[in-house]
Amino acid sequence: MSEPILQVEDLHVYYETKRGPVKAVDGISFILEPNNRLGMVGESGSGKSTMALALMRMLRAPGRIVSGRIILEGQDLVKLSQDEMRSVRLNRIAMVPQGAMNSLNPVVRVRQQIVDGIRAHNPHLSRKELDARVRDVLRWVDLDPAVANMYPHELSGGMKQRGGSESSKPTLSRESVVGKV
């Protein structure tokens, strides 16, 4: 049996307020096995986005992970430093936004927006390596590499959703949580 892609164990995420902590995620546990998908469903304010931001270690104050484990391919993300986590983001874990149509800059070609994300986590890559990664990323989400030369307004809604990645309302699946970008 293969190792789970993602394990969340007894995750607690609280927002500190003057009246005390708000328990946004209170003891969530789940396992995502290879070749499976996971969907989060709940009412507005139920903690879906908070949980996804916690998985990415992108919570902003006053939010914080109080306890629990987030194990990505055997590595506990909660124990990583910010620098170590920065190298994990986009390389091994990423978010696919719910409102992706609004996450792309309308006056910047798709290629440059993908390159900006890759460079933020891999500043050492050459132009040739970046070009290859852009092609790989677009193919990974079933887009023709020629999309790299387009502006967001030239894309269909579905193409924008597969190309955008900077919103805070993610959908998690094997392909969107873990992948070689």
Task: Characterise this structure.
- The chain is of the alpha+beta class and 181 residues long.
- 29% of the residues lie in helices and 23% in strands.
- The protein folds into two domains: 6-97 and 168-177, P-loop containing nucleotide triphosphate hydrolases (Rossmann fold, 3-Layer(aba) Sandwich); 104-163, no CATH class.
- The strands form two sheets. It has a four-stranded antiparallel beta sheet. A two-stranded antiparallel ribbon has the order 5-6.
- The chain starts with 5 loop residues before the first strand and ends with a helix.
CATH topology category name of the largest domain: Rossmann fold
Query: What's the helical proportion of residues?
Result: 25-40%
Strand content: 15-25%
- What is the terminal-to-terminal distance? 26 Å
Strand order of the largest sheet: 2-1-3-4
Q: State the major sheet.
A: 4 strands, antiparallel
Number of distinct beta strands: 6
CATH superfamily of the largest domain: P-loop containing nucleotide triphosphate hydrolases
Q: How would you briefly describe this protein structure?
A:
The protein is α+β, with helices and mostly antiparallel strands and 181 residues long.
Q: Which key terms come to mind for this protein?
A:
181 residues; alpha+beta; Rossmann fold; 2 domains; 4-stranded antiparallel β-sheet; 6 strands; globular; disordered C terminus
